[in-house]
Amino acid sequence: MSDLKTDWIFGYGSLIWRPSFDFAHARPALLRGWQRRFWQGSPDHRGTSLAPGRVVTIVEQTGAQCWGMGFNITGFEAEAILSELDIRESGGYVRLPVQIEFTDGSSTHALTYFAPPENPNYLGPASLVQMSEQIRSSAGKSGRNSEYFIRLAMALREYDLPDDEIGALEVYVRQASDESENG
User: Is 118 a catalytic residue?
Assistant: First the structure.
């Protein structure tokens, strides 16, 4: 990652609970000016081309905060890690250099992946009900979309990383799941 002068990767979605690469250590990290949103379509991993799932991207917004994990890859094969992440994060995601902050007040440059609105799989905003229905009903080669959602929500709680929208959306995802089981 010499072109970005960083040895850190910032994960705010599935990288939190399934990094799939070697790292020296991981730390909770904050990205200011961006918020996590379930606005990216997944026509392969968590859905299909006809019924895409919803996965997270980050959206720039003044005053917003996105908590995630910073992964230090110092001493590891950075270019190989990035090549693997480029494949994993295909489908509309691009590399983005960012500045992240840690809970001790320190900060560093990092690299993250985000899906800009002009990518072909971008779904954009929807109501919590609409998003929960899509998340609940979609599945792809990496599994059910609801599994992705639940694992992310659980990881955020495990690391004490706040996200109000995930909390609100989780109520709808779980309520819809309970209704289908009891219906």
Answer: no
Exposure on the CB side of residue 43, measured as CA atoms within 13 A:
11
Q: Measured between alpha carbons, how far is 152 from 17 in angstroms, rounded to an integer?
A: 7
Place of tokens 């495990």: 158
Helix (H) or strand (E) holding 30: strand 25-42
CATH number of 2-182: 3.10.490.10
Instruction: Tell me which of 60, 77, 79, 89 is the catalytic residue.
Output: 89
Domain ranges of the chain: 2-182
Report d(CA 68, CA 70) in Å as an integer. 7
Question: Over the stretch 94-148, which tens digit does the pLDDT of each residue have?
Answer: 999 999 999 999 999 999 999 999 999 999 999 999 999 999 999 999 999 999 9
CA distance 137 to 47: 9
